Amino acid sequence: MHSAAGPAWAVWLEATSIGTAMRQWLWLYPIVEIVHIVGFVVLVGAAFMFDLRLLGLARGVPVSALADHLLRWARWALVLVVPTGSLMFIAHATEMSSNPAFRLKLLLIAAAFLNAGLFHRWPFRAVGDWDTEIAAPLPAKLAGALSLGLWTGVLACGRLLAYF
Prior knowledge:
Layout: H1 8-15, H2 17-24, H3 28-54, H4 63-91, H5 93-97, H6 100-121, H7 138-160
Helix pairs in contact: 2-4, 3-4, 3-7, 6-7
């Protein structure tokens, strides 16, 4: 039996039938976690490949074509990552709500999405000028380097959840 102690909203979440099932059904949590990891592999893998292109690797591949291709994969990965992450959070809401690694993970995810949004709003709008064979402009390179760092931090925090 799980004795939850923490904020009332977190205790309530854990007491829902979903939270209880996630903790009590033998294979449910591990399956959800595996799907979450697969989704993150696809999401972060797509981001890494795109970021490496921004930093100068594979200049023969058009940035716009790579963005079209990889963004589709990243969006589908979010369809896996968001619900599975939510399910895992519901199962352990009292622990996660006070876990510094979890809080940092959420901040890094928000920063990574903000970075991606700013990149698409600013340097990517002129991608036709540097799509192939030309080095990406400094703002695009900075966005790529920042993205690599942020997503690496998200992965590290996800792994560190078990230690805090």
